[in-house]
Amino acid sequence: MNLGYPFWGSNRPNYCGHPSFQLDCSSNVPQINLTTMNYSVLEINNSSRTLKVARTDYLDTICPAAFVNTTIDNNFFSYTSGDTNLTLYYDCRTPLAAFPHLAFYQFNCSINGTNFINYYTQVSEAFLAFSYLTGACKYRVNVPVQTDFPTAATNDAAIAAIDSGFMLGWNATNSQCDTCLKAGGLCGSDPTTSTFTCHCTNGTFPSGCSTVPTTSQTASIP
């Protein structure tokens, strides 16, 4: 995986990236933590400034230890038009087949050692909100998937859709980084202030490269 700004971690020091884009590279697949939720990083596209991620708590399963909605850091990340929600309903007391206008698919898993009926669907949020308010199910979890990924009415299809991940766009002072790159510098940050920094051959600067450095040392970029 070709890493560049704003990502950092492992042998890539923090001044080469943005504070909110640290990667944990201790396993075979790098991970990123967004608002206390861990994601596997499947792809990074520096040109389009997008990355494909998948929730680690749903890896190879649709029966996680806890039922938590997907969260991202909206200050730096955004969903793309290629994303849609796969919504999973857990511990359903009322058969959701009672709602004929919704396409629900049943799956089984145990909650605290007890088996309950569960469902998943890809219908619109307007219908989801209505059915949730009926109190038919105890838990509801939205997990983003790609809109073009087929989800047949099987557990394996739902797991495959989630494990294939979804796309996020990022914005880490993109315009300043563009200015820095055009000037021949490398984008990074100041570890002390966490502000954007342009690393140039003759020093570091707040945006593009200059003839007068703002620091007395030049950072080494791996």
Helix content: 10-25%
- Strand order of the main beta sheet, please? 1-2-3-4-10-5
Rg calculated over all Cα atoms = 22 Å
Briefly note the structural class of the backbone.
mainly beta
Strand elements, count: 13
Distance between the termini: 15 Å
What's the overall average pLDDT, rounded? 84
EC number: 2.7.11.1
Pfam families: GUB_WAK_bind (PF13947), WAK_assoc (PF14380)
Catalytic activity: L-seryl-[protein] + ATP = O-phospho-L-seryl-[protein] + ADP + H(+); L-threonyl-[protein] + ATP = O-phospho-L-threonyl-[protein] + ADP + H(+)
GO molecular function: polysaccharide binding; protein serine/threonine kinase activity
Keywords:
elongated; mainly beta; 222 residues; 3 helices; protein serine/threonine kinase activity; signal
Description:
This protein is mostly beta strands. It has a domain at 19-170. Helix content is 12%, strand content 34%. It has three helices and 13 strands; from the N terminus they run ββββββββαβαβαβββ. It has helices spanning 125-133, 155-163, 174-182, and strands at residues 23-24, 31-34, 37-45, 50-55, 77-79, 83-92, 105-111, 114-121, 137-146, 166-170, 186-189, 196-200, 203-205. The protein has a six-stranded antiparallel sheet with strand order 1-2-3-4-10-5, with no helix packed on it. The radius of gyration is 22 Å and the shape is elongated. The model is unreliable at 213-222 (pLDDT under 50). It comes from Quercus lobata. Keywords: Glycoprotein, Signal.
